[in-house]
Amino acid sequence: MIKNRLINFFSKKEITAPIRNKMMMNWSNEKNFYNQRKTKEKLRLKEGRPHTVFYFHSLSDPYSHLTIQVIKKLISNFNIVLEIFFISQPSENFTPEREMYRKHCLKDSKEIAPFYGLKFEAEEFYLKENENLAYKILDYFSDMDQGDYIDLIFKVSSLLWDNDKAGLTSIISELSNDESELLNKKITDINIEGDKKIQSLEYYFSASFHYEGENYWGIDRLGYLEDRLIELGLKKNNSDKNIVKKLEKSKFDPSQIIEKDDPLILEFFPSLNSPYTYISFKRVKELIDRYPIKLLTKPVLPMLMRNMKIPTHKGKYILSDSAREGRKHGSIIKDIYSPIGSPANRAYSLFPIIDSYGSGFRYLEELTKASFFHGINIGNEEFLEELSNDLGLPWDKIRVKLDTDNWRSILEKNLKDMYSGNSWGVPSFKLTNFDNSNPYYQWGQDRIWLIENEIIDRLSSRR
């Protein structure tokens, strides 16, 4: 019963809206964020602990194959103690569309690796039968020098993803009979300690780092960890700030645009209860202003209104991480009023008619700003009227659609389109040529840069 309540934490049945909104604001509050850092550092000093970074790895996670390639750089650049843990993959409560998530991780890791100077070329998941041997090897050699052990993890991971059983076997070929027998007797429980550790730190994903109260997922968030360690004076040298840098493509020259060129089509899939959606609007608008793009805004229902669950730990991380990302990109999360339920339904009911006036994108942008910056109940009719007026729309014609249901079929169609690109979360994106050919999907505000790269490639190919 307690477990179910934790899993259903964000549903109206389990917690009243004011309490939920207050907790969401606490988790995203910038002052709380920095106060926690100060508190954690004081406690660390009091207890005489070294600067310890925990790293969580899973052989079955493609993102872990990327992060293990930069671990030695992290150690060599900072005065830290690194503790490595192996963990299992999170339960379906944390990854509701498990098979879609697996496919996404594989595709995404392969796509982003070259931009970070990393290697990952697997076309499919490795044979499960080799995983047991791989973990036994890592368990058996876990007492070796840490630098050599990190090299071994990468070697074992590479062989595993290459389905090279002979290569894995060769690692232990020089063991004595007694040593081989000891290795083969090992029960692969190497993940037990790591699973307990990461749960105690209120996190769930592998390829992640933890330092004194904060979690940093994968290559995408490693820069935040580096910034924090630099603030603490732990950088060993004056080398470049980031140990991993993303290669940037040069921006497309607008002067090369030919008047008769057909624009590309960008379909944007937002939802009203997503802080990640809120912080993406500004960057999506920048794409529209910068390139010849026709934007189609296709909202979908929030995950919680699609009978999906968000465990407390996941909800907490989403709010704190989206706030962190928002500060980076100039979209501040401040006062929150979650629109789950009736507020979202009422706001969605007006979307089709407002979109028919060409204001769908601005409408949803203002709704998410109201929810995640101003703390306004977007289901309030006076607010909706004021917003309609601000958009220059005739409220007398708009309001007749309030609380009608035709929007539901539209959002359901949008959801099916989004799912067809192996995307289940928001914000998601679909880029096509003007004739709707060659669809390119991306999930998440983290990948807006990949959308831009694809735009540049397609426009450049026309020249």
Briefly summarize what is shown:
The protein is an alpha/beta fold and 463 residues long.
Mean pLDDT: 93
H/E topology pattern? HHHEHHEHHHHHHEEHEHHEHHHHHHHEEH
Global Rg? 24 Å
- Helix % is 40-55%
Which shape, going by the Cα principal axes?
A: globular
From the coordinates shown, what is the CATH architecture of the largest domain? 3-Layer(aba) Sandwich
**What structural category arises from helix and sheet content?**
alpha/beta
The CATH class assignment of the largest domain is Alpha Beta
As for the number of domains, it is 2
The CATH homologous superfamily name of the largest domain equals Glutaredoxin
Total count of strands: 8
The portion of residues forming beta strands comes to 5-15%
User: What would the CATH topology of the largest domain be?
Assistant: Glutaredoxin
Strand order of the largest sheet: 2-1-3-4
Instruction: Return residue spans where pLDDT drops below 50 for at least 5 consecutive residues.
Output: 1-7
Main sheet characteristics:
4 strands, mixed
- What's the number of helices? 22
Distance between the termini: 62 Å
Model description:
This protein has 463 residues and is of the alpha/beta class. It folds into two domains: 182 residues, Glutaredoxin; 206 residues, Glutaredoxin (3-Layer(aba) Sandwich). It is 50% helix and 9% strand. It contains 22 helices and eight strands. The protein has a four-stranded mixed sheet. A four-stranded mixed sheet has the order 6-5-7-8, sandwiched between helices. A hairpin with a 2-residue loop joins strand 3 and strand 4. It is globular, with a radius of gyration of 24 Å. The N and C termini lie far apart (62 Å). The N terminus is likely disordered.
